[in-house]
Structures are given as structure tokens and as C-alpha cells.
Amino acid sequence: MSNAQRRDESLCRTTTREFILMSDNHRHCFILKGSPREVLPDFLQLCENFSTPLIAAHDVSQYDELLIPSLKRKPFKTCAFKQTRQELGSCYDAVLVDLTQGVSASALAILSGTVRGNGLFAVVLPHADWLSMADQELSRYLPWPYEPEQVYSNFKRYLLDHLKNTSPFQELKAHQVAPLPALTLLDDNAPLTDEQANAQACLFAEQAQSYVLIAPRGRGKSTLLGDSLAKLVQAGKRVAITAPNQDAIVSLKARFESHFEANTVTLPFYAPDALMDDSNQWDFLFVDEASMIPLPLLMALNQKANHCLFSTTDYGYEGSGKGFGIRFCQHLASQKTTKPLALQPLVLSQPIRWGENDPLENWINNTLLLAPKEQAKQSFDTRITFPIKDDITNKMLVGKDWIKENNLLHDTFQLLVSAHYQTSADNLRWVLDDPSVTSFISMTAEQIHSVAIVTEEGHLPEDLSLAVMQGKRRPRGHLVPQSLLAHEGFENAGQYGYWRISRIATEQSQQNKGLASQLLSYIEKSANTHCDFLCSSFAATPDVLSFWLKNDFLPVRLGTAKDQASGSYSIMMVKPLTQLATQQAIKWQSQLLEELLMNLLLQYDDLSVELILLILKQYSFYQSDIPSFVKLTAQDAHNLALFVDHHRPFDSIRPAFFKKALSLALQGQLIPKEPSHQLLLEAALGRNTEQTRRNANLTGKKAMHQSFKKLLSTVPPSK
To answer: Which residues hold acetyl-CoA (predicted)?
Structure first.
């Protein structure tokens, strides 16, 4: 008998009464086996002394039916996996997660974080071979035409191995359980811990323009925020709080209200957009779950108060607070302020909802790769750099390969979490189970420097492509060909094969050394015989767009609405790998650029001029002539000459100036990062030029017009 088997047998013999003695405010973890009808009585017995337990599953209808007779005795709550995000911020004595029909990685992560210390977290597995059963959650991770019945789940194999070998869960035999003891009542007005009090003292000292509170779940962020808001109100300060939704701040609200007589003071909550429309300037503004709010909106909110506190989770359930921390905190640290500090981090590391070194928290974090191996925190502006001395090795891995590469898997996800604020536990299952996904990594010895996640798309049947283009079908996955068909009307876009770089990241200290570009070259070599295009779709910012342009990707689509997460327009780019694909890509790009020229005044009035110049500049690389509608007529040239050489008013030559600015941009004669060139296009588009004038060191309109005359007199005439 192996050690693991002896351990499992020993755990099966352990009764719940004996397990109680093992707890140090840690959560109790059990595996129950069987159907809902078989496991529910044992769960009810375990929860005899608990209030309002939660039951979650892919489909909770069976539990709803079985619980009806029990509701007279004790209220229960059920929740389908697709609804678990609504439980963020909730707190339960006990949670049962039924994994029989399917597994949701995000549900496991979210729900485990809602259980109190000494509470119960139980999972349900079937008596039958779980790995051979179709997983109804799997369809969310599979592109067309794959179905759950066709795909072996590497993630289930991975999760089961971790449940058996590394978890704190013990398997309970049916009808051999005793009720767990009742938990102490929660005190909404319990004293702050020393760590919370120190963070609050830093906040009340008002030494910084902005504060950032980044901590794992269960550390008392909500308590600290609610307590601080109440004390600031009592001190006569003008305060406000915002969050993505009010459901996430239930415990924060309870702490706030505990400071006042019932219904005498209302929590000053505002939705983010309502706050932006409010003309008030606050003394303190708190932004909870900040990593779920678009960065441009966060930057704007930072201007609404004398002091702003941004709170988020540094790893875990909503997506990555770490990626949020890197980007946004760098922005806050660089802001100009009259305060002694631009940014002050606040730290909460001691768990409050459960005991220190809680086995369930450790297992969830390690299994779902939600936390770094080492918990040591670095300051936001510190980067540890090290030289790359050895040769770089590239690796290509598919789902089943990761089962044998556990260390590489962990390091890969930590890199993705650091770079992409939307990386979540669900992405782990996607990488392990989606047959269209291939992961590429570059490393030196055991150190991973860059990683890219690539999905195979395209080769859609002609009838399906037609239905997509007509808006009648939306098959799962295939983002780029679907968008080119449905949004751009490119009739043959579905017939090509694409490798889409869905995620790409480089370790922070090794950025700007060409490592990501080297990895792209390796991907291109691997793709040459498999597809027609490499492609990417991402939130369009000048720095990210410049990276893809540098690697010879062509823009073929610009989104028409801003992404809610990034606050930016999305852009699609392709790199053709065959002669036929190159001809097609140039046609697609030409259509994008010509339509963009029209849409600049119709729907892109907030698209940055630097981004516009970067996109338009590509036209000159592949086209010998500019579009006819931006060519200057003889009268246009005459009007511009009167403006440049004489005293023709600027407002009287705006149409000619508009065409001239666009033609210069298309010919690559306007430098995207040059303020005076940005100013030229900004004025041509009729935008507010005040900030750009200051960047160009121009004091007023007269100086601005003189700069235009100088620029126009030094460039050659349009083609």
C-alpha cells in the first residue's frame, strides 16, 4: 500500500468530531460522494448548528427540489456556478460545491473565500469514474466544433490529483458524520487589528495624494474601509465610496452602519459613472474592487478628491489585482502633487476571516495558481533585474503536457497574472482543456522570461461563414475570423487558418530586451505550415500597438466601442505567412484605413491622436497613393498657401487643412510621439488642443497657428 493510500484510508477513518480538534480557526474540508439525494443528508447533518449554508453546482435544480422539506427547519441558499461572482463579498458558515456534473475553477476560488474560520467547505464527487464523465461546464472553454463529450479534461485530472495528494480534504463515509459546532456570532463593530489600525492611521495622516490597499481575501479590507468611512463622516469630512456594484460591499456597509444609530446615516455610495457626473470635490474617495474598473476611469476618479484610496485583491477571484497594481500604481506614483507623497501603499496580510496558514486557502491558491510561491511583498516601484547569461530555450506545450510540468505551469501563470489584469482561475482550465490552445514559453535554465498563449482559429465551412457574416450564427471561439466576417463583411475571412496570440507577457524586469519579439519569431516558425495568418486582438494603446507594428503585424479592424475592462478600443492585427495571405491582408488593411478616415469625425472623437497617427502611418508602407477624397484640389492648395504665406484666417481653411493633415499622416510624415505633429491632427479634427499645446510649449492659438505654418511650409506636396 502506498503512502497516499494509507493517508486516504486514515482520513476515511477520521470522524468529524476528531477533526474538530485539529482546527485552529481553519476551515473544515470534506469530500462527500454520491448523488444529491445521497450527499445532502450528510451535509445537512454537518450543518445542523450553522446558519444559512450555501449549495453550488452546475445545475442546482435537484438540490432545490430536495431542500423544500428542509426549509421549514433551516433556510438554505443555492447558487449555479454561473452566478457565483455575485457571492463576492459574502460570508457563509458552510458551502457545498457539487463537482459531479462539471467543474468551475472560478466558482471553487470564489466560494472557498466566502467560508468563515471553523466553517465547512465540502465538495461532492460521484461514485463512478469522474474522469470518464462528460463535464457540462467544459463547453464554456471549447471553440466550435468541439463538444464536452469529445474532449478529455486534463484539468479534471489535474484537480483530482491535487485533491488526492496535496489537499486538506478528507473523504467522509455516508451517514458517519456528526454536526460541527456552532460558530460565534460575527461582531460588525469588533476592534480593528493592529495591522488595520496602522493602515487607518496612515490614511488619516493625509500624507499622500493616493493610497492603494492591495491584499488577499479574508484580510479585513471591507472592515477597514467601512470603519474608516464612518470615522471620516463623524469627523465632518466629505467622503464617497464607489465600486463596480453594491453587492460587493455588503460587509463594508455593515461595518459603516455599526457606527451610527439605525437608519440615521446612509453609506455615501455612488456608481462610478454617477460619481464622474457629480461636480463635487471630495476630501476622501474610496474605490473598492478597483481592478474591476477600467483604468482610464480610475485615473479620472483619482481627480475627484483630495485623497483617493483604491482597494483590490492582489490575486484570486475577480482577475488579477497584481496586473492592476503594476500598471495603475506606476501611474499614481508618477502623478504631480503638493502632498509629501504621490502614492502610499497600505498592507493587510494577516487573515481575519479564518486562521493563519489556513490549509484550504493554501490549497486553493496552490492548485488554482492564484498566489506566488513566495508571499514576500515588494514595493510598487522596485524591480529586481538580473542578466540573461545563458542561451534561451523555447518550448511549445499543449494541455496534457502541463500535467507533467507543474512548476512550469505555476511560473507561467504567475507571469500571465502579472501582465494581464483579466487572468483568472478559469484561464487555467482553458489552457489545460481547450484542444485549440498551444502555449509557448521562452526560458533560461529554469527561469521563464516570456510566455504566449495561442489559439487555433478559422477554416470555417462556407455555409457557416455566410451565416456569421449575416448575423445568424455565432459559433464559440474563432474571434478574429468571426469579427472580420460579422463586423467588416470580409466574405472570405472564414476560409483562412489563424493562430491568434491570445496572451503574451514578459517578466517585468526583462521587458524591452526583445524577448517577446524573439518568442513571436519562434511561434511564426512553428505556424508556417499550419496556418495563413498570425493574429492578435487587444486593447489599443500606443505602446502595445507599437510592439505589434514592430513585429510586422498589420491592423485590419478597429472596434467601435471601448472595452469595459481596459477602457480602450480593441484592435485586430494580422501577420500574413503566405503570398496569398499577404495580398488579402493589404486589402483588409486598406479598407480599415479608408473607413477610419471617415469615422474619425463620426465615432472616434476620443481616440488618441498618437494612436491615430500610428495606424495611418502604415498606409504608406503598402500603398503608393493616398485615397482620392483626401487629396488636395487646386483650390485647397491655394487656400493653404494663403494661410501659410499670408494672413488667411485658420477657420476659413479648415476643410483643406483637414485633408492636408490626413494626407500627411497617411504618407508617414507626421511623427506619432511629436507634440507639434499631434497638435496638427488634433486641430484638424476639431478637438480641444489646450493640453497638447502645453506639451508643445506653445502659449496660445497664435503660436499654434505659426507652428502649423512652419510645418506645412517644410513638407513636400501631397502625392
So the answer is: 504-506
* pTM to 2 decimal places: 0.87
For β-strands 533-539 and 554-562, DSSP reports them as unpaired
Chain mean pLDDT for the chain:
89
pLDDT tens string 489-503: 999 999 999 999 999
CATH 3.40.50.11040 domain extents, the chain:
3-171
CATH architecture of 3-171: 3-Layer(aba) Sandwich (3.40)
Residue-wise pLDDT for 207-216, tens only, equals 999 999 988 8
Comparing C-alpha atoms, which of 326, 351, 128 is closest to residue 218? 351
Instruction: In the chain, list all ranges with CATH 3.40.50.300.
Output: 194-350
Decide if 521 contacts 534 (C-beta within 8 A).
Answer: no
The DSSP 8-state label assigned to residue 271 in this structure reads: -
| pLDDT above 60 (res 19) | no
- Residue 184, marked binder: no
Q: Is the Cα dihedral 207, 213, 218, 221 positive or negative? A: positive
- Select the more confidently predicted residue: 362 or 445: 362
Q: How many CB atoms lie within 10 A of CB 619?
A: 22
Instruction: Please give the average per-residue pLDDT across 269-281, as a whole number.
Output: 91
Rounded CA gap, 304 and 302, in Å? 6
| 114 annotated ligand-binding residue | no
3-state SS of 433-463 is HCCCEEEEEEEECCEEEEEEEEEEEECCCHH
DSSP string, 539-600: E--HHHHHHHHHTT-EEEEEEEEE-TTTSSEEEEEEEE-SHHHHHHHHHHHHHHHHHHHHHT
Query: What's the fold here for domain 194-350?
Result: Rossmann fold (3.40.50)
Q: Across residues 189-195, what is the average pLDDT?
A: 91
Q: Is the pLDDT confidence value at 74 over 70?
A: no
Domain(s) of CATH 3.40.630.30: residues in the chain: 393-603
- Structural contact between residues 210 and 302, judged by C-beta atoms closer than 8 angstroms: yes
Q: Is 196 part of any known ligand binding site? A: yes
